[in-house]
Amino acid sequence: MLSFGQYSEDGDWVEHTAESVIAAGRTTFQSYLFFRSPVHGVCVALDGDIQSCEADEAIYHEALVHPAMLVHPDPRRVLIMGGGEGATAREVLRHPGVTRVVMVDMDAEFVELCRTHLAGWNAGAFADPRLDVQCRDINEFLDEPGEGFDVVIGDLVDFNDPDDPAAALYSRQLYERLRRRLNPGAITATQAGGLTTGRTAAHAHVRATLDAAFTNVSSYGIVVPSFYHLWSYVLASDERLPDVDALPMERFAQRATARRLALPATGPASLAATFALPVSIYEKLQKPAT
Amino acid sequence: MLSFGQYSEDGDWVEHTAESVIAAGRTTFQSYLFFRSPVHGVCVALDGDIQSCEADEAIYHEALVHPAMLVHPDPRRVLIMGGGEGATAREVLRHPGVTRVVMVDMDAEFVELCRTHLAGWNAGAFADPRLDVQCRDINEFLDEPGEGFDVVIGDLVDFNDPDDPAAALYSRQLYERLRRRLNPGAITATQAGGLTTGRTAAHAHVRATLDAAFTNVSSYGIVVPSFYHLWSYVLASDERLPDVDALPMERFAQRATARRLALPATGPASLAATFALPVSIYEKLQKPAT
Amino acid sequence: MLSFGQYSEDGDWVEHTAESVIAAGRTTFQSYLFFRSPVHGVCVALDGDIQSCEADEAIYHEALVHPAMLVHPDPRRVLIMGGGEGATAREVLRHPGVTRVVMVDMDAEFVELCRTHLAGWNAGAFADPRLDVQCRDINEFLDEPGEGFDVVIGDLVDFNDPDDPAAALYSRQLYERLRRRLNPGAITATQAGGLTTGRTAAHAHVRATLDAAFTNVSSYGIVVPSFYHLWSYVLASDERLPDVDALPMERFAQRATARRLALPATGPASLAATFALPVSIYEKLQKPAT
Amino acid sequence: MLSFGQYSEDGDWVEHTAESVIAAGRTTFQSYLFFRSPVHGVCVALDGDIQSCEADEAIYHEALVHPAMLVHPDPRRVLIMGGGEGATAREVLRHPGVTRVVMVDMDAEFVELCRTHLAGWNAGAFADPRLDVQCRDINEFLDEPGEGFDVVIGDLVDFNDPDDPAAALYSRQLYERLRRRLNPGAITATQAGGLTTGRTAAHAHVRATLDAAFTNVSSYGIVVPSFYHLWSYVLASDERLPDVDALPMERFAQRATARRLALPATGPASLAATFALPVSIYEKLQKPAT
């Protein structure tokens, strides 16, 4: 029996049964594995960490994209940092007011692999004329002068400890650079890793980083079954953001309706409720790490 | 390295590292294992399934007990079906209006083991004069004429398939018997197993069973990190219940305040938000199984 | 981390780390997986059981082929039952007196996969004009009148319990058919599965089957590291065979020298010593199963 | 399901199912775990490595003790280095000419645990008046002037890499000290870890160490099923020793008979044959490591 195992967010061992391997190898930047699970469908792992699984990637991607897009009254120009699978772009492009999406992912080979092996998953996003895919370093991109964005979505690989090299993707320098490319009223969202009672350091690090760059930050999370954990995200803006005391139930429902948004995996109520984290977890997020 | 492994709700394999074994053996009814995890603290397993772990048992038990108790305007008499660990009783007894709690758990040996090994966990509940522990079959108890209850909490072992013997604890017969012992306006809550995108049959079975006995049912769920899944519950009553379109945010907050309830693991907002399940999961719960 | 796990011969769980997957799929008859282990090199599994690994397949194949070939004073015509990987043929063809080898393996697709992915492994055997590969059912082949053989090597998939369908490949019927195709003085050898202190049933079944068809049988075994066990074989003949009280040390050495046989993985002394099984295991092989 | 996992000698992962835990904790020197496997019976692990299992400890201990004892024409005084379980002493004491056995094991608490939990295993050895158990450091013991020994058995914990602290138990210093306490014609045997095609470094290190202190060394190995590997040993002496070209078949059989030795797990032929290692493994042992 073939299986794919990894340590969970809190240090136990989780194995996904693998029916078959679709593609495996290394790009210039990372090792990749596309396999088929009898439970979760096609799964994608990078450097030994599951990134997304067919059966519930829509939960992950809807929760990543739509809170930021629904908080913003009229998002037109959107920047995606990372997002190689194409599913983040797919969700962004569902908002009819969007006129331009720039997706900056360093790994052209991985983007190509996703285009080939995850076609049902990108659902035509790569062919949408509004999408501009740039395979380059995000810091380089942000340093150039250029257009501003209304919403920025961070779909970069996650890290387990603040010492992990991938933590650089969640640094103050990057977010300071990012500020220069934001339109007034911009909303930024980023995934922030698995979140458990015992391991809150990674999320707290991301939150503290964004907190240094923006007036307001807000944490939220949703269960992605194939990740075996609550998956967490951070919203940041100089505008007011939803939080545990002000779940944006009606706003999300109204704007989703107005934009004729299908949210087939989550729904507006479920997305609004993601901001009500259990207090025993929420309390640990205020300060960086334990 | 010692570890405790079990298939997750959806068929993958999850291993908890075990630092040491505190107690292991068999009672008349089931095998038990109390072990210490470096991640989750003391963990309790019955017949090979984790029941609770020290680090987050409060999330599981608060979510099991308080929605029903907060929906009811004045719960005084409470029945707990199962609940051997004593933590369900602990949560019930926090509501100051409660005058009597009957806990019916078939397995006297397991209750005694929990009293010994989980003392911090029951937190004195077994010594509370309002608690009456009866170690006997729940069906037998319900068949006798006797006092009525305002709230009933089902904290019985879970099952994976409707064919599993433990499924009898979630049968229509049991709930028909239960109805005879309910006071007007009674609220019933039961745990209903792990809930994932792919495996919804166990929850749907519990929900359908309660749906046959009560006018209204409502599903909700919360992440218990050591269970590696969304954990689900069903509320049932002839009264109106919270649901995804009517999260009881204010009611839960007001009643928690009025009753001076500490909800240190979850909080009223988080408990109210548990009713907003992702639609891709929620839709599958309406009908029994797939 | 990708890994390939299977229950060991005695019921524990063994996982081979998999660096990459070379080929995976199903033929008409069985599922196959060719993967690369950092420890054992290329590994081949059929229906979830490891068949051979690059790092030590030579130990398995030398031990399968050479005792029978060295017991026989002048083996010319050899039949291989199974042997899809081509390495059994490779070993047989090393004996310079061999003029014809018929290899009967049912699964043409698997033979083709081995020709492609295990080229270093067959080492040109498939190109040797003395080898005649016939992809068909072994029973059918044996039923036809035809040439006789001096040595027969059984390299068929193994089975764990006498109830397993693969046990038919080790049936009395098959060996009665086989007798009709044997030359006088013929020696038969077959692999007979993993052999441990606790699990001797599979080997005992094979031994009993051959014992019913031949005057003499002899059990032997060698450690194949990647199999995590003593691997066992049975020799059968109407001639006298080596056994624990008469290790053929000198005969094997002399004949290997005379035939200029390289036995790079095992050596003649090690092959002769394989007949000295520990008595606690040997005693259990005399009667079919426990 | 509770299980005990460890990396195998060559880096794969092997899990023993654990039915129950008999004792677990730490002594001053090491962590211990006594558990029951449905396959191997009671198993003992120290610092995360299996030491012995009830079902086949006799194979391990007979192979450790009897080759040295049978090579020596008249062993009377025997030193055991380590051997806390008491089974090595049990085997030594079976030789009727033995008048005195000194067992030096540093860990008094572990020896006591074995006396309690492995009583069937020591089989009364600890009560034999010929046995003198000294719980102290072996270097200290050897530094003192004192009696000489005919046979020395090393049953110390094994190590995986020459850098491992336990490698000090296999150092030249220790064997130089040991020489001062040897009677003329003395034979030394030590266990030397698991031995696989890919991992020969630990054995080669032990062999090289003994080679520096003695005129002759000889490697041998036997399968201990619960160790999932060929288990290896080294004999050392200034006398002539058995080797792959001179298996001591008759000598072992004659001396076992003369001493009325039961060798119920292995037998004299099987012990003699352990010196015929496969050449692909044997060749790698001559030089320290790869």
Descriptive report:
Chains A, B, C, D: This is Polyamine aminopropyltransferase. Chains A, B, C, D: One of its GO terms (molecular function) is thermospermine synthase activity. Chains A, B, C, D: InterPro entries: PABS, SAM-dependent_MTases_sf, Spermi_synthase, Spermidine_synt_N_sf. Chains A, B, C, D: Residues 1-238 form the PABS domain. Chains A, B, C, D: It is an enzyme of class 2 (transferase). Four copies of one chain form a homotetramer. Chain A is an alpha/beta fold. Chain A folds into two domains: 2-53, Spermidine Synthase, Chain: A, domain 2 (Roll); 57-286, Vaccinia Virus protein VP39 (Rossmann fold, 3-Layer(aba) Sandwich), CATH 3.40.50. Helices cover 28% and strands 31% of the residues of chain A. Chain A has ten helices and 13 strands. Chain A has a seven-stranded mixed sheet, with helices on both faces. A four-stranded antiparallel sheet of chain A has the order 3-4-5-6, with no helix packed on it. In chain A, helix 6 (172-179) packs parallel to helix 7. The longest helix of chain A has 15 residues, at 57-71. The radius of gyration of chain A is 18 Å and the shape is globular. Chain A starts with a strand and ends in an 8-residue tail after the last helix. Chains in contact: A-B, A-C, B-D, C-D. At the C-D interface, strand 2, strand 12, helix 9 and helix 10 of C face strand 2, strand 12, helix 9 and helix 10 of D.
